[in-house]
Amino acid sequence: MKVFSAEDVRRAVPMGTAIDVVRDAFRELAAGHFVLPARQIFGDGAVLVMSAYHSPTGTAVVKKIGIALDQLPAIRATVIWTGGGRQLVADGISITTLRTGAVVGVATDLLAPDDASRLTLIGTGAQAPDQVRAVLAVRRISAVTVTGRSADRAAALSKTLAGEFPDVKFTPSTSIDDAIADADVICCATSSSTPLFDADALPDRVHVNAIGAFRPTMRELPRELLATASTVLVDQREAALEESGEIIDAVHAKAVTNLVELGPALAQPPTSTGRTVFKSVGVGVQDWAIAAALAGDADAQAITTRAARQA
User: Fold this and answer.
1) 52 φ, ψ to 5°?
2) In the chain, is it the N or the C terminus that has fewer CB atoms within a 10 Å radius of its CB?
3) How far is CA 133 from the centre of its chain?
4) How far apart are CA 131 and CA 168, in angstroms?
5) pLDDT by position in tens, the chain (length 311)
């Protein structure tokens, strides 16, 4: 059994690779190659269990997540991947943030303007850095505004990311309306129970990703945005209608009648003019994709080690 720490996960699966494997996994999902049970939710979302089985390879992943929004880190998780008589166990927080960033990268690459150069990040928690890394992997972003309720945390995250991406200008802010006024891409990664902004505050052309609200009582996006967007993309329709507060609200109000799933959209790209939205609650195929990449890396390491010993 292979065990991967958070550092191991990061070394083995860089963001560009994560985006590629998550994109492929959603294509496989659309082709019907996954058995994907509904997420099990316990204690009003305090404990989540997700799983996925990939029929062509006979491999499976199970992830257990514990969520406590009043603690840091808010998420604790473990991932187990198995197949072909092999098993690996990996740090689930790093896989969760990485695969969540990766799916945003896939959606942004699909829908955001090709010439997008300005990104606004709303949220400074554990999920936030990988949102930026993912967008920067698929678009030539020159300026990023990091927005949060705490000026100190926004400044600290800006400084950290600036060290990682020295060619990008990072600006901390506590004003969401100011930060989104001229954005090409917006990433929302908060635990808000009410919309973060009014639709009127947005530019006419913008792509918005929302990954923070994962309960029916939580909402990051205003109904008006969902009602007027040219495309509302979701990772999986069933999961979004079960867990996403903003999607549930908009569908019940008949503000949205056409939810586009990511997998089929990769084969037939939807309209990407004006305002577009991607809402993700996360599905097990994303965890499977990262864990499968880890398993492949572990195989490569084993082959290299055997060759070195034989030499």
Assistant:
1) -155, 145
2) C
3) 11
4) 15
5) 899 999 999 999 999 999 999 999 999 999 999 999 988 889 887 898 999 999 999 999 999 999 887 887 777 899 999 998 899 999 999 999 999 999 999 999 999 999 999 999 999 999 999 999 999 999 999 999 999 999 999 999 999 999 999 999 999 999 999 999 999 999 999 999 999 999 999 999 999 999 998 889 999 999 999 999 999 999 999 999 999 999 999 999 999 989 999 999 999 999 889 999 999 999 999 999 999 999 986 554 443 333 344 44
65: alpha, beta or left, given left = phi > 0 and alpha = psi -120 to 50? Answer: beta
Q: Enter the pTM of the model.
A: 0.92
Task: Name the token pair of 190.
Answer: 């908060």
- The phi and psi torsions of 76 (rounded to 5 degrees) equal -130, 135
Strands 231-234 and 260-261: parallel
The domains found in the chain, sorted by start residue, are 2-96+285-310 (3.30.1780.10), 104-282 (3.40.50.720)
The amino acid occupying position 81 is W
Contact 186, 120 (CB under 8 A): yes
